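re: ur question from yesterday

yeah so i grabbed the chain u mentioned. its 175 aa long if i counted rite. heres the sequnce exactly as i have it in my notes:
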Amino acid sequence: MKISKRGLDLIKTFEGLRLQAYMPTPNDVPTIGYGHTKTAKLGMVITKAGAGALLVHDLAWVEKAVNKEVKVALTQPQYDALCSFVYNLGATNFRSSTLLKRINAGRYSDAANELLRWDKQGKKVLKGLTRRREAERELFISEPSVTTLTGPQGPTGGLLAALMALLAALFKNRS
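ran it thru and got these structure tokens back, copy pasting raw so excuse formatting
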């Protein structure tokens, strides 16, 4: 899967656009553009086009992580919410999270609620993270999950769920 414009807009909204590198919070790392950290250094300045290019580059590793780690079918909103989550918290946190375990067990409602637990830096709750996790959760639950549409997963449930997601995407692209 690939992130949609809706998912991209969610990331841009919460990351904000900063053309000069800064420290988002005192215990953070230098950040520039739409939340880019890998090559950011304090004092660095970029253009809006440069920020967009960094975001596209960063989304490649985000999509790779989500596509690799999630073993069940997702709706586009679920995928977009997870991309926002991984972009913000990193692939390592996602890989070891209860959130991912719940998703891969087909427990989509429980997974949606797991998003809300990731609103802290250290032990301190950050209002911006709380708002972001709430928005990701709302996006995640905005369409019925594939298992809701196909019923409990039996021996062929995973295949059926994947087929239903593919058909839904094909028909959505035709309109």
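noticed a couple things. The domain at 5-143 is CATH 1.10.530.40 (Lysozyme). also The first strand starts at residue 18 and ends at 22.
anyway ttyl
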